[in-house]
Backbone:
């Protein structure tokens, strides 16, 4: 497995930590709660969020049913899309593909629409927050029909909601004797953290928060002792859009909570809905813990499933939770997203994430850091006239005694800020 899988996250979080230093040094935390627009009603957001979670649960049930019947032949044409080289477009494809980007994939049977809509064109479920709408349909054909109707209205931004996959991180032997993640050690993370501790201009007397939008976190891991955000009763704070299937013991092994033959020392294990059942989120969070002083607390937001997938609509909801909920409760200074989605693939997606996530975060003095993605294509032409209001970081690969940009793996182009 390529080491760039890991270093994409590593460099991503390193930039995040540098941003933390600037924010800690230049702000005192008293102006971090800028008044939100009156339209951003918390109850409206919570209703929106619950509707998105219900759609995720429906999708999970549908996927489970499909797995149980995987040996059966596909008989319904709305259960599969035609091959990309099919002579007839339609039935899951459309004419709005951008050069270099994938054609729209309606297999999730959801649309994301931004703007004032007059009709849902047959949506079975709807999640709305101000001018943002997530629409769920019964079939692929219904989804494509609605898409084409929305696309005909130039006042709307519309694209198919889709699943993204975050690749597994490279495996390494764990040695936490000095509380340094193996990846952070590769770039002298201990020295970086010591620099923060020795730098008198960096304030470490106030608690600040990094929100990590990923596959969850292993709350019992020794790396996170005293580093996870907690409430007044010591309960770890976090949130999940795809509840975890596992619980973890002190030795970092995953256990199936539904398997009665599994022995777990309850004294060493904790169970939260945002426990990491894939592994990537724990790895990313441990890099943050390695590179920052103890006043920096980690807030896990589980957007990924046990297969490492997440929907664009779930990512949007997670960002909105930071804006509407956590920014009012805690001193959140930045967010980290290691998925390749988030406004980097087409103009409508860029507009959506700028308006609904990145700009509202910036208005609250919260910096968004996000991965460029690992499809090895030039993103410059996809949204060339757009400015994504987040820091975009590409992957690197280990070469000799250092790391270099990996143009055979990572996305690249003018949109990338740091490699």
Residues:
């Amino acid at each position: 497995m390529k080491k760039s899988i890991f270093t994409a996250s590593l460099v991503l979080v390193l930039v995040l930590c540098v941003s933390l230093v600037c924010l800690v040094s230049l702000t005192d935390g008293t102006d971090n709660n800028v008044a939100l627009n009156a339209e951003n009603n918390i109850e409206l957001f919570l209703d929106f969020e619950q509707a998105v979670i219900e759609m995720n649960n429906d999708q999970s049930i549908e996927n489970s049913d499909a797995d149980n019947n995987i040996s059966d032949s596909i008989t319904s044409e709305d259960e599969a899309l035609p091959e990309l080289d099919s002579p007839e477009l339609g039935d899951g494809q459309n004419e709005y593909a951008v050069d270099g980007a994938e054609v729209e994939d309606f297999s999730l049977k959801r649309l994301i629409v931004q703007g004032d809509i007059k009709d849902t064109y047959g949506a079975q479920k709807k999640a709305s927050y101000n001018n943002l709408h997530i629409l769920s349909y019964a079939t692929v054909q219904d989804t494509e029909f609605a898409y084409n109707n929305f696309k005909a209205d130039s006042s709307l931004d519309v694209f198919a909601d889709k699943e993204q996959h975050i690749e597994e991180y490279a495996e390494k032997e764990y040695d936490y004797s000095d509380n340094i993640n193996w990846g952070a050690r590769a770039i002298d993370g201990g020295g970086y953290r010591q620099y923060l501790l020795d730098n008198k201009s960096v304030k470490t007397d106030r608690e600040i928060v990094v929100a990590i939008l990923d596959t969850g976190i292993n709350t019992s891991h020794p790396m996170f002792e005293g580093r996870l955000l907690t409430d007044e009763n010591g309960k770890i704070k976090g949130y999940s859009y795809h509840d975890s299937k596992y619980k973890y013991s002190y030795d970092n092994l995953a256990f199936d909570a539904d398997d009665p033959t599994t022995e777990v020392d309850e004294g060493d294990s904790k169970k939260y809905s945002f426990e990491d059942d894939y592994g990537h989120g724990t790895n990313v969070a441990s890099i943050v813990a390695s590179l920052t002083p103890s006043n920096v607390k980690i807030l896990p937001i589980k957007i990924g499933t046990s297969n490492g997938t997440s929907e664009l609509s779930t990512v949007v909801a997670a960002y909105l939770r930071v804006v509407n909920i956590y920014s009012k409760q805690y001193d959140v200074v930045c967010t980290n997203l290691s998925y390749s989605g988030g406004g980097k693939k087409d103009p409508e997606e860029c507009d959506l994430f700028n308006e609904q996530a990145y700009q509202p975060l910036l208005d609250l003095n919260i910096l968004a850091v996000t991965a460029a993605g690992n499809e090895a294509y030039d993103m410059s032409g996809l949204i060339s006239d757009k400015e994504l209001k987040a820091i975009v970081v590409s992957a690197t690969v280990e070469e000799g005694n250092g790391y270099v940009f990996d143009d055979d793996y990572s996305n690249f182009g003018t949109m990338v800020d740091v490699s």
